[in-house]
Amino acid sequence: MPSITSRMSLGEKFTLVISVLSFIVGFFGLALSESVSNLYSDAKIFATKDSSNLNSLTGQEGYIGVITISNRGISASEKMKLVISFDSTPPKYEVTSDEEISKSETNGNDIKIFLDRLSKDAKIKFTMYSKLPISYRIQYIDNKGKGPIELEDHSKQDNIKEIILLLVTIISILVIFYIFRRHAETLVTEKINSHYIELQSKISELRDEIGNIEILISEPSNSSAPITEETSKGFTQRLADFMLKT
User: Fold this and answer.
1) In terms of domains, do 106 and 78 share one?
2) Are both 57 and 135 inside the same structural domain?
3) Residues of the domain holding 13
4) pLDDT in tens, 197-239
5) What's the total number of domains in the chain?
6) What is the DSSP string of 217-234?
7) DSSP string, 53-95
């Protein structure tokens, strides 16, 4: 019986190869994605940034900047120090958090915020006011060393990529399953038909043998010659041969 792949057309083989490659890319892409890595990573710090021009809102000069920092990892960030670096003198600011803030200080162009811990899903809100547009960089250090802060925009883009990879993986699996199932059903049907034909052939042979036996049985009664031992042995041998064949 030929294998399933040997029965496929060139187009089906090409589709199968593309589906397998797509599945591999999608699977490993998901395995290495941000969402999966967050399942076994420790603290994962994210930040969202927002800035408003007060002139367009209230007619007053100045800018308001808001940074919201959250921990989306599976564990807390211990002994955390948040550092916000500015290109010039730091603006006026206010900081609030779900957690207790140990202290905050200004050191040159940097504002440093200290917390004993930033628990899972806890947030820090940092609000700034300046007469000029605000430009800054954020980083944090905790008991496990210096860590990156992911921007929310990047997180949304990563989520879109992960959804696309998930769709590619699911579609690839469905295509592979459909191709193999269709050909497997064809093979089963052909095997059933083959057994049916073979059975019909054996039934035909059996009918022929039964007909021959009926002829052998009727021959002695229609003949005036006596049934000899040799004739009886010949009939017995033919009957035994038939039983062995069936």
Assistant:
1) yes
2) yes
3) 8-37+158-188
4) 888 888 887 777 777 776 666 655 444 445 444 445 455 565 5
5) 3
6) HHHHHH-SS---HHHHHH
7) EHHHHTS-S-EEEEEEEEE-SSS-EEEEEEEEEESSS--EEEE
